[in-house]
Amino acid sequence: MDEFNLIDLLDSSGLPLKNRISKEGYYNPRPEKAIAPAADVLIPTAPLEQGEQYRFHFDMSLCIGCQCCVVACNEQNNNPAEVNWRRVGEIEGGIYPDTKRYHLSMACNHCLDPSCLEGCPTDAYIKLENGIVQHQADECIGCGYCTWNCPYGVPQYNTERNIVTKCDMCHSRLKEGQLPACVAACPEGAIKIEKVNVAEWRENHAQANAPYVPDSGMTLSTTRITLPENVPDDLLRANRHRIEPEKPHTSLILMTVLTQLAAGGFMTLWLLEFFARWVNFLKPLQGFLPYGAAGMLAMTGLALVTAVFHLGRPLHAYKALRMWKRSWLSREVLFFALFSKAGAAYAGLELARHFLGWNIPDNAMTLLGAAVVLTGLAGVYASAKIYMVPARPAWNTIRTPLRFFLTGFILGPLFALVVYSLYGVLQIHEPLSAAIKGPVFVFLAVSAIAGFFQMAVLLSRLFSMPWEEFNELHASSFLLLHRFKNLFVLRLAALVLGSFICPFALFAALQPDALQGGIFLGLGSVCFLFSLAGEFLGRYLFFVTVVPKNMPGSFFAAQGGSH
Amino acid sequence: MKNFLKPIKKRLGLDIQKDKYAYGLDEQFGYLSKAKIPDRWVATTCGYCSVGCGMLIGVKAGKPVSVRGHADHPVNEGMLCPKGLAEHYAITAPNRAQWPLLKDTKGRFQRVTWDAAIQTLVAKFRAIQNQYGPEALGVISTGQLVTEEFYTLGKLVQLGFGTKNYDGNTTLCMSSAVAGYKRSFGSDGPPGNYEDLEKADLVFLIGANIADNHPILCYRLEKNLKKTVIVADPRVTKTAMMADLFLPVKPRSDIALLNGIMHWIIKAGKANQDYIQKHTQGFAELRAHLEKYTLDYVSGVTGLPVQQIQKTAQLYAEAKAPFIGWTMGVNHSTQGTETVNTICNLALITGNIGRIGAAPFSITGQCNAMGTRESGFASSLPGYRKFEEAGHRAELAQLWNVDEEIIPKARGLAYPDIIEAVLSGKIKGLWIIATNPLVSFPNQNYLKEVLSRLDFLVVQDGYHPIPTSEIAHLVLPAAVWGEKEGTYTNSERRVSKVNKAVEPPGQAKSDFDIFLAIAEALGVSGKLFPGWTKPEDAFEEWKKVSRSRLCDYSGMTYELLEQIGGIQWPYSLDQPRDAAQTYPLYQDGVFQTADGRAKLWVVENEAPPEVPNTEYPFWLNTGRTVEHWHTRTKTGQIPLLNRLSPEAWVEMNTRDALKLKIKHGDYVRVDSRRGAIDRIVVRVTETVAPGQVFIPFHFAEANANNLTVNSCDPYSREPNYKQAAVQIRKADSKL
Prior knowledge:
The structure holds two protein chains of two kinds. Chain A has helices spanning about 1-10, 35-40, 70-75, 115-120, 145-150, 170-175, 180-185, 200-205, 250-275, 290-310, 330-355, 360-385, 400-425, 435-465, 470-485, 485-510, 515-545, and strands at about 50-60, 85-95, 100-105, 125, 135, 155-160, 165, 190-195, 225, 235. By secondary structure, chain A is mostly helical.
């Protein structure tokens, strides 16, 4: 009753509040200033002092799971039903009738080390002086990288806007002394805003932990959670059955596989060109190199155009370069931009040398080639680093860069082989001479070795997973071995076919002198296509079977993130 | 061109909908989404449950864009539950009924004019009544209309159409509380107030899951710092988890528990002999009857340890102002009325009634179930008058200026009996108003068979298509909450104003206007509703009719209701009091019986109509979830609420699941002797006891009422929703 009386007393117009309904039944608003004092117990009234920031306090012993905060938040922000800045999870333990079901209402944790902010390639996130982590819609390009970085699943992609959005603690309300919507809506007073001393919290943030809530050490979550007494130790998440696949991100499957193909391919060409100067059996390659380089360039271009359409706001893609000092996503964009330029120069000069007879010294080409290869490999590494985020344990392993590089070393040589066989058919009259065998052997051998390692990496993932510490890893291998069992078998089969069986057949077919160009081209393409299919499938599985860290959900909520 | 460019602009990220997601300053509520800042706020009362929260509907350009709790309302002080917070979407829902629809000979709905619809209704019903007698028409209404509409409808049906076979879906909900109060106190009328939750030192909730069903009562309860909360429920509900002492009773053992508590209190000499002497009758019989309800015996029936029963009895006996609240766990039973009597017994023998904090209090279901109890003309005559009392009939005849003989001398058929009368061919025409029996009635297969036998079925509802409207011959589109004016009475007898914020969609009309139009076509409007044009006309007459009755409205005016934000009855012209004051009934210990004494009833704990056996080994319990309202005609159309709770589920104990090799998240089939749910997801949980399962009843697609028993309480005719026997096996296939 106290709050209520307080409003009564502070009514500036001096009217008894009960008389505020007009004859027509319309409510006469009271001055908005009167709202603030009522909020005393739920939000701090004194301003922040040096070294302090705002944070949420959630009292799990009070929450009854009524979902008022969720609905109030969506109403406050006009969010569609699919976007919930505040969510209520359920965990349960105990034995009937000593059963405890706890509800965990969580919004943004306004972390001290916000990973959303750190990963953002465009600096769309700012940590305000009062500690609120704010997202600026105008700066966002809709890459969704923050949704991968946050271990709590806080930033959410809004398909209506093509950007990510998130809780800002009702910043504009708070600074005017108005209650944030969730705080105001809670009938139990379970959600409050508090001040926290940043330095002290950095030292000890244990109170941000709760059962099944990702460890506060990852990002230094500031939300203080009051746990009930005597929490049973057999707690289970209500949504433990809802292990759902993540989105496949088709444009990213294409983009990553093709950039890796191009990087691996350029590297193959560059090495071959270098060695062909001295190694006899590689000599037949020399006329092919300009075609090969052009092929790799085409793949690079295709990859980068596709990548742009991963963004919610493709026309704002250029902004992704901004944060290269901090964000691996920016770095990836930067490296691949340089890679494509260098690749274009390399391919262009090779073509000019071949067709226009420009006289460019071999060493200059080797140097330029080295630049292409280095930027390409750096790009692939940056790509891999993007995925190596603590919030996605299945990605956050050394296997990710290994897989990415190996994809490049499998597909690069095979694509070169396809271009080479095409070149062979078009440029060399049949029957093809046995001399082409040398380069073909090299292409196939490199790819097969890479394929062997790729297989080893894949299987090592399987064998290692069940013993690793994170739940999400179990869930991830569960998805792979159950929900996606058939695709996984197909993926392995494609790898075996593309890396071992078809190459063997091709090499066998190359033995007689009367080699038909068609068979050469055909078998070369089959090797490539099997491998390509294998890597695409592998990448698809990579995306869908990652089970992100998240807050525990309600019975009907999927464990995964929203993007 | 613009439309053509729109999706392209969006895909390229040139349009991030900045306007839609902008914020602005609302004078009343501070910063919020600009799109939600209305041109004006219209004060009203929530249209979902009987808590009766004060609300404001934000109206922008004639459309409802937001709702907020009314900070000045005495019930909720600005708080709302999640349904309330999203209630404006119930007005703009895509499934609103908009046009009168008549089925053609091929069974397809065709739009007709209102004139034609009403002429058809009157002609068909009159033809049925002419051929089969006046009682061949049945009317089933609701707890959703405003009191003015209930009052009007009652007169229209009983005096205009001349059939007494008129009842509401309230019989599926709180009629046991009504019948129980009548038997114990001589009249309906919950004696307590919500303020009791704040002031009681002991709050004893029996079969009431207020955390899911009445969350704003939790808000009131939370203000009580000295409370001890005891909850009795077979299921560990959210409310049970709030309790200081939780009593996990076996299904249908609450009477034994209460008898055991009384046994201990009497033996311990803690009964209030003074109160018993002065204000009750039947104590000697009760005491003799309670002899056998020893703690050991009760422990056997309830499954509770002796210490828990004793502790409960002691806490209750020693509390200064103990409150007992109950809802459907008590009412939804073939012994519902008697359970209410047992609760009242306990309050009476300890004198815990008529004081702030101390009350046996029925927490009602629908927003205006109370309104129809008071002013309706179904289970009693308006103003809690009795059909059987000639004096009451004469009084009404005089007030209405009608021949006394046309006022029925006995109650007509109750809802389940109307359905049975359709089966036996006694009722041929049925008019269903604002209720959806094809989800809510027990034993759906039985009901479907019965309703198909009707000559003419009229469904009057704000929503179409809904399961019941689909089988209607005639659909009348009604205005809903937010589109019409009147009053609701909440559980604590508080009458609050309901206001019109927006126009109804299409040709939908308020139920009040529909009733007046039917009266006109029937030729009774001059006699029954002289000069009536607006709900206030009905309110004014109702005030006169209620004057000097227990539910006395005579001192109220619409204006005063708006000012106070809700006034408790009795609020009489004859005995002025502070309108804002909380008013417990029976403060003087004088009850509405002939001798003014409350009656103590002897009640035996009996088995429910169906118990598990080897073929159907599980007890089925049904109930609600916080996100949904009744049959989801409203909340099923609200995307956020639906997202939070998208489908039905069955709660099953871990040990049972293990035995049946069913995993959390599996789909199962549930069968009872009457029907089945083909596919429903399992929630493996320790909130239900081994051998028991729970299914929420909101979902037409996986309808718990395919399984429930349609046996009814002999006094209240309320069905036994809470116990049935079912079997469970894995669903045939995963969809």
